[in-house]
């Protein structure tokens, strides 16, 4: 049986009434002891029990999590964080069967005669695992994915259940991370410790879904992820007729085990990562709109000092290159900024320096960049 679709009580209210009326007309009051005579009756039905297939799994949207044996994970939750995803469960339960009130949540529209399936039961040698997914306390590590997990093509999540099989999560991880919560239900072999494994950027992290314990090889840099506040660095070049301004504006800085282009940091190291925008604006006494662009050499433009050590930046920083100008610099479309520094994984504070070097163009011509004054260094601190 494939992945089961989500249902709603309203939809089944109508179908249950129709089924009840039809059955009573044929069989009187003894509903569950007779058949309608149709050829498509579910062969898995046994009396009033729906026996679920051994590979049963489904995701149910928000609702009460009150299954038999419900308990909270030690420490409050079980969670994994990677470059492009974050997932958290706060409660877990296991059961071999569900009474009618609980089973009703998981009826499938394709099953025949819902009145016949008043309860549900796991396949022989199996039990049902219930996981309550909730909104993660930590966002995906990379700032670009702070609003949502990456797609299943980028982040591959499976549950290993002890029989050698890796079972995909219906709807992927994204369906379990909403603010209102969701329930993942899976059939697993009795006595097995199902393990959630998530592959992201070529590296796999795992967590035992019964105990909530992460695999000891999980990157320590994510637990917790160290971060700092926003940063803003400006540099201005001015002549008698015009002026150009560069502004490196990062949304924040984080200490990352992994960054795009740089990959996973070597053992004992981490990436101090700045991600944001590079703005370019210009003014001209004539009021004409003229194009100002900058493509910076990250290694010469950004540097970091700490404990007597200087580290140069790597990455990219370029303006959008769209025309700006007039007698006053206005808001312009931002370019991209992604700069990283390889530092010890124990790094907590330092000083950031910005000395723009690279290729600069103004009104279609190459210009040299001679700032009016040096950009003040910026002290940064991680928490």
Can you walk me through this structure?
Residues 1-46 and 323-331 have low confidence and may be disordered. It is built from 3 helices and 30 strands. It is elongated and about 90 Å long. The protein has 2 domains: 9-222, no CATH class; 226-381, no CATH class. The strands form 7 sheets. Strands 3, 4, 5, 6, 9 and 12 form a 6-stranded antiparallel beta sheet that branches. The longest helix is centred in the first third of the chain and has 19 residues, at 9-27. It has helices spanning 9-27, 100-103, 298-301, and strands spanning 45-46, 49-51, 57-60, 71-72, 78-81, 86-95, 97-98, 119-121, 126-134, 155-160, 166-168, 182-189, 195-200, 203-208, 226-227, 231-238, 242-256, 258-259, 263-264, 269-284, 289-296, 302-306, 309-312, 314-318, 323-325, 336-344, 349-354, 358-362, 365-367, 378-381. With 383 residues, the chain is mainly beta.
């Amino acid at each position: 049986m494939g992945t089961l679709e989500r249902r709603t009580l309203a939809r089944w209210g109508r179908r249950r009434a129709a089924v009840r009326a039809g059955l009573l007309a044929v069989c009187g009051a003894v509903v569950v002891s007779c058949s309608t005579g149709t050829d498509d009756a579910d062969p898995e039905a046994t009396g009033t029990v729906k026996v679920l297939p051994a590979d049963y799994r489904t995701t149910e949207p928000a609702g009460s999590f009150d299954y038999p044996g419900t308990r909270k994970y030690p420490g409050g939750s079980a969670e994994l964080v990677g470059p492009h995803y974050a997932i958290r469960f706060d409660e877990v339960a296991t059961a071999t069967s569900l009474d009618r009130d609980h089973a009703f949540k998981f009826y499938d529209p394709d099953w025949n005669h819902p009145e016949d399936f008043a309860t549900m039961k796991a396949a022989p040698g199996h039990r049902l695992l219930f996981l309550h997914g909730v909104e993660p306390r930590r966002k995906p590590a990379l700032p670009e994915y702070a609003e949502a997990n990456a797609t299943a093509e980028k982040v591959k999540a499976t549950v290993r259940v002890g029989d050698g099989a890796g079972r995909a999560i219906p709807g992927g991880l994204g369906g379990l991370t909403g603010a209102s919560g969701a329930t993942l239900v899976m059939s697993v072999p009795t006595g097995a410790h199902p393990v959630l494994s998530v592959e992201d950027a070529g590296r796999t992290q795992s967590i035992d879904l019964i105990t909530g314990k992460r695999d000891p090889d999980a990157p320590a840099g994510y637990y917790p992820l160290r971060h700092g506040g926003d940063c803003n660095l400006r540099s201005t070049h001015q002549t008698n007729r015009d002026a150009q301004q560069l502004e490196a504006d990062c949304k924040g800085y984080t200490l990352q085990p992994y960054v795009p282009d740089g990959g996973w940091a070597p053992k004992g190291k981490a990436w101090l990562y700045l991600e944001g925008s590079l703005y370019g604006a210009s003014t001209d006494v004539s009021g004409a709109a003229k194009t100002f662009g900058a493509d910076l050499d990250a290694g010469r433009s950004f540097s970091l000092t700490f404990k007597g050590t200087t580290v140069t930046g790597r990455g990219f920083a370029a303006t959008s290159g769209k025309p700006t100008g007039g007698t006053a610099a206005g808001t312009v479309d931002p370019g991209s900024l992604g700069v990283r520094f390889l530092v010890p994984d124990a790094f907590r504070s330092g000083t950031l320096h910005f000395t723009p070097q690279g290729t600069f163009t103004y009104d279609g011509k190459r210009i040299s960049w001679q700032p009016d004054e040096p950009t003040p260094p910026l002290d940064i601190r991680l928490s």
